[in-house]
Amino acid sequence: MEFRVKARLADEQGLNRTITRLAHEIIERCKGTENIGLIGVRTRGDYLAKRIARKIEEIEGVKLPVGILDIVMYRDDFRMKHKLPRVEVTDIPFNVDGKILILVDDVIYTGRTTRAALDALMDFGRPAAIQLAVLIDRGHREMPIKPDYVGKNVPTSIGEEVRVLMKEVDGKDEILLVEETR
Predict the structure, then answer these.
(1) pTM attached to this predicted model
(2) What sign does the dihedral 152-114-173-181 (CA atoms) show?
(3) Which of 28, 49, 96, 176 could form an S-S bond across to 40 if both were Cys, CB 3.0 to 4.6 Å?
(4) Among residues 115, 116, 107, which one has the least CA distance to residue 156?
């Protein structure tokens, strides 16, 4: 598939500003940093969670625990695809029981990834609460899931896609709105 860039939604500075705002919103809503853990949904959600944690550490001087969650085996569509899913490592190096978990992902669309992540998280214990932080909310929900923290709302059509590029994976930071070309 080939894609055409329709719009550049954020450059490196814009992405950094959005991460800073998300960090401040998390601190404010949680009334500080006590008892919080961040869990990033693999792949870009885990890097985003680490960046938010670094920003919170800059602001509050507190290092929050960060985990990485792979949800491939929890997805409701993995059996429908023709190839076997690539399962990555889940690494949650802290006890989730009684914690306020901030589930972090780059883009929310139908809500199915978030539903899978919630199912996966429950296998690790019983958190006090789970909140959802996303960089981009592009609408078109198929599940009754609403993020608690949103970096940007980007209304899209079905043929459009939001691509979040991060240095750790893609070599640069930017957010693009793309559409498939024929």
Answers:
(1) 0.93
(2) negative
(3) 49
(4) 107
What are the pLDDT tens digits along the chain (182 aa)?
A: 788 999 999 999 999 999 999 999 999 999 999 999 999 999 899 999 999 999 999 999 999 999 999 998 886 665 555 455 566 789 999 999 999 999 999 999 999 999 999 999 999 999 999 999 999 999 999 999 999 999 999 999 988 999 999 999 999 999 999 998 87
d(CA 151, CA 108): 11
DSSP string covering 64-84: --EEEE--GGG-TTTTTSSS-
**Which pairing describes strands 160-165 and 174-181: parallel, antiparallel, or unpaired?**
antiparallel
Identify the DSSP state of 91: B
Neighbouring C-alpha atoms within 13 Å toward the C-beta of 86: 2
Q: Which CATH number fits domain 12-158: 3.90.190.20, 3.40.50.2020, 2.70.40.10, 3.40.1170.10?
A: 3.40.50.2020
Query: Is residue 2 exposed (0-12), middle (13-18) or buried (19+ Cβ within 10 Å)?
Result: exposed
Q: How far apart are CA 87 and CA 78, in angstroms?
A: 11
The amino acid at residue 167 is: K
Report how far residue 117's alpha carbon sits from residue 122's, in angstroms, rounded to the nearest whole number.
Answer: 9
